[in-house]
């Protein structure tokens, strides 16, 4: 009885996550209806809360896949409750990604859940665990872009449309960065089980610096330009224009003041 109760509590959705969902819903409604006195504040809260929801789901996907692959320890660690405060590195997984969204409009991939790989047998299972997180970002991007590629935007307020476009940008950048085969990122985790022991041993010391290496490269104008050209091409193929993502980011940064161009945009 105690064990059953314990296992049930390990999988109960956290009130913290429910609260974040509530903020997303309320601020999304405020953005849609124009209820907020300052639309930018509503957009900021809506996009930030929705971004945190996607981060929680990203890590939950890792943990849930690990659970079904043999790592039963993830429940006791609180990873199945969707509570971001239970993550191994809450700073890397929540705080830094939000800061990077505010500063540069990039969906920062963060490492959060600790998987006991020794409990898991089979290379395909290890690869699937790593892929589950960024695949969640892909799914989130599909949901955000659906109104655009389905031509279902009639009657949708421009502020809400711009907010969705910016949120889609974050999901696409997060998925693309996460799938890079760089040590420390999920993309490397997908291919790592298929590498020889010697290669894995030589690469392992560089894993903590993989994300820093990627962002150092993104500071180079040539690399940054190519990266965002790829992002823009993906978004355009999904029906989202440069104007919509630009105005979404401008609205999100409400402290910079209103943008007349975006205010006049249909």
TrEMBL record:
Main localization of the protein described in the UniProt heading: membrane
Membrane topology, record value: Multi-pass membrane protein
Swiss-Prot/TrEMBL GO biological process terms: proteolysis
GO molecular function: peptidase activity
UniProt keyword list: Cell membrane, Hydrolase, Membrane, Metal-binding, Metalloprotease, Protease, Transmembrane, Transmembrane helix, Zinc
Location relative to the cell: Cell membrane
Transmembrane stretches, start-end: 12-32, 38-57, 90-115, 127-150, 162-185, 205-228
InterPro entries: Metallopeptidase_M50B (IPR052348), Rip2-like (IPR044537)
Cofactor: Zn(2+)
Similarity-based family: Belongs to the peptidase M50B family.
The protein, known as: Site-2 protease family protein
Organism: Streptomyces olindensis
